[in-house]
Amino acid sequence: MSKLKPVALRRSSPPTPHPVAQYWRKCQVKELFDLPFLELVYRAAAVHREHFDPQQIQLSALLSVKTGGCPEDCEYCPQSAHYDTGITQSAVLTVEEVVAKAKIAQSRGASRFCMGAAWRGPKPQDVETVSEMIAAVKALGLETCGTFGMLEDGMAEDLKQAGLDYYNHNIDTDPERYNDIIHTRRHEDRMDTLGKVRRAGLKICCGGIVGMNESREQRAGLIAALANLHPQPESVPINRLIKTPGTPLADAEDLDWTEFVRTVAVARITMPASYVRLSAGRADMPESVQAMCFLAGANSVFCGDTLLTAQNPDTDSDTQLMAKLDLQPMPPR
Prior knowledge:
Elements: H1 26-33, H2 37-51, E1 56-66, H3 95-107, E2 112-117, H4 124-138, E3 143-147, H5 155-162, E4 166-168, H6 178-181, H7 187-199, E5 203-205, E6 208-210, H8 216-227, E7 235-240, H9 257-270, E8 275-278, H10 287-295, E9 300-303, E10 306-307, E11 310-311, H11 315-324, E12 328-329
Parallel strand pairs: 1-2, 1-9, 1-12, 2-3, 3-4, 4-5, 6-7, 7-8, 8-9
Antiparallel strand pairs: 10-11
Helix pairs in contact: 1-8, 2-9, 3-4, 4-5, 8-9
């Protein structure tokens, strides 16, 4: 029997995502999902090692700079004004408050600081406000990311000029079932903002949520839609639904852990040069499942005790897990 050859590890800087190498039909992505579990993980791990150092994890922090009262009707969201979830609307944080949080995140190893606001879309004065935050965080030496909803013409350029690196705008679910989950906008509205962001020269962070009573075929539809963005997103957050009392999806069926790992693996195979991030839902995910996700190609997490309004693993837990797995924070690019 021949010996296995050692795999050369890539360095910390991943390649820039290329234009789509192929068009992924939903049926092709579904075929990946249907592979035997360990075969799928093996293939994804091999792709991961071709593009990234598998011992490095990119750490991001996420702060809600304006919480609650969102006019959008998204069945998964505790910040929607349409549902009584116990979250009250708060004022926009000051620049000083944001910088203080960013410094803490940086001291804990985060290389990217993400700011989110519960808006359908920002008004011009809102763009001025968050631009001050972006510039102040950028001055700390951190990568910056913003998620502020749908953008009007010129806003992406203003954010870029302020120092924004990434804009997050998730497509949430399979486009074919989009309006089963979101009732105040269309999938096309999401794509319109993504186009504005890309034309402004910003990097894109775009992913979705699994565990919303969707089928495997619909999960394949989500991944296909992400993989067919041109060029592919630089960051792809994979969220597991956090079932919040008061929302229509509070009683959604639990997603089996193997199906979540499959989603991560298929995302890695179809988007080989993108960061694949374990996002919402990680707080109650066993260490063993997180380890399997890292093996399957996840190479980014949100660090910090909260994730917008949801619980996130505390810093000590993440530090201990990374030590157990011999993982290191990815240095800023």
